[in-house]
Amino acid sequence: MTGYQKWISFYTMVRKDVVRMFRIWVQTFLPSVITSSLYFLIFGSILGERIGQVQGVDYMIFVIPGLVMLSIVTNAYANTSFVFFQSKFFARSIEEILVSPTPPWVMIAGFVSGGLVRGIIVGTLVLIVAMLFTGPELAISNLAIILLFGVLAALVFSLAGLVNGIYAKSIDGINIVPTFVLTPLIYLGGVFYSVEALPGWWEKATYLNPLFYIINGFRYGFLGTSDVPLVVSIVLLLVLIGTLIAINWYLIRRGLGLRQ
Q: In the chain, count of helices (H) and strands (E)?
């Protein structure tokens, strides 16, 4: 394929996914906005008044970065895994891509970009809702760090969702990983608390959770503070991205889970 043909293949996959998610925006964008609003209301406004401050800021301000990142990773993951599974089992469009000369890396980029777009859009919407609850109190320490971690985290979980979509043989296979793996990692990754508040053994266990580093790096962009060095979080994200790209490339190249 020529460079232009690869671009057309990539653009077609991305455009199809983006048009789909805007067409059914009530399912793709609205649920996370409503859920986050409830989180802000209950954990931020109501419980926040009793908790007071965490790491020198109001509890409401503290939980916002974690809730925004929660919406980014869950939507990026869900979008890529479902779209690939749908293309494989329902629309059967994956077969048309496989018989074409489209390289595996173009397929990966096409499907992952849709999850990246949805994750960033939903994260932005949730952040806007957060500002309605906090007003001018929500400060941004480093916008570049926020954008960097938002994009890298969405990319990581889009790639992870693609692995899930490739292996899944039923709709239950799509739901089991977010339910039993992703959700515990998120809620035990420091979204609602600081690692300093944990007992010694639980604090050590938290450092084994990759979501902990991602949430802390993202929170640094807002508050300017983090429980772990920023470089460690960035390196971890880059390693995860490289590893997941290699896994997806291998699976697509071998056709594992794709040829029915």
A: 13, 2
